[in-house]
């Protein structure tokens, strides 16, 4: 099989591409299961690949897996993702025209190459044919991992992406006048999911600016991660991401920055990240990526949710009396400028800001040596680093909120939700402590806490300002937070729904 990738036009003959956002819809399953790798096809000849993950469904932790198999054509890679995205652009245009996507989907080689900004050479037409055959050839064995949106269930079966791929038409001596056209029949599960809008919106124009395969692979995940975090910073296990991308995972920070770091820089250049860092994991060996969203990605997330976002204008203050307004008032009362307070509000919820202010104030009040010379700076540090707050401290705030709700004119609904949130936090706490015992037996946890503490003291001046006891408490919470992030825990809504279902069948719950 030829591994040559299509080459773009020379600068003097580039196909002009529109500057505006060009949204396409990428089916979620293909992104989440790592169907398209970021590997170099010249060095990867494997015809099978398996990815296993632990997830939480219905309050239970279960293992899911996806296994990919292909013939001599190889497994889908970056160049296949490029063509698939261009193909989806054509397919979604057809859906907009007819109201629904239907099989078969027909397009010309000229259309696909034009979308990709590639020359109309015979080799590029051959690449289209190999791409279509590869997607029709590759099988996916789903072990409860592929979600079927129309049936609201997970598949436990072997499926394909393309049911069939057909090339028709004849090439001519002049490649620019080739009449080749293609016909794709999508598998039923994929067609249903696309029509059910089980998709992630992506900007095709932004994608076309990327050159590095790993950057293109990470691109789609950024939409998932920052949508889930509501635009706040995210941390991701480096080794797990490498597994999804089908690329080597390195064991030294310098090598990670030299390889994946260049792709992250490229994503920063197009405004999808504002900054990034590689840090050691606290709860286990290995590294994690710390990613901050860029303005272009923020605007796209807002656009995809059909909300209006002003750019280049003065900041809009929140409505008076709203939680956001109260959080800003609390920040400025601590000596933080309004512009900085607004910046902090972009990365944390009002509740999180209030909790961090309360906890930072609590720590400073316990400091008898007067080491906290800049209280406002310490609060900023606490919010930007999401300093973990001990369970007991959070519980006391919840108890106070419940008492206030019960004393209000209409207390029942608010007080009931607060009680449920306390039960949920107790459930999460139990799950995390169980995992701590599994990972760290005997004195291992205390030793790891001391290691985290020494590392933070050496690298972070504001952390060094705390007393030894305060440093130990925060180091413990940092470890627990990392463990929490690594577990497939349900959201509050998922946990509450599962609890309600169990209450409908008390006999089952008792068993």
Q: Overview of this structure, please?
A:
The protein is an alpha+beta fold. It has three domains: 11-198, no CATH class; 209-310, Orthogonal Bundle (Arc Repressor Mutant, subunit A); 323-510, no CATH class. Helix content is 51%, strand content 16%. Helix 13 crosses helix 14 and helix 15 (391-407) packs antiparallel against helix 16. The longest helix is centred in the C-terminal third of the chain and has 28 residues, at 412-439. The model is unreliable at 1-19 and 306-316 (pLDDT under 50).
Main traits of this protein?
elongated; alpha+beta; 4-stranded antiparallel beta sheet; 3-stranded antiparallel beta sheet; single chain; Arc Repressor Mutant, subunit A; 14 strands; 21 helices; 511 residues
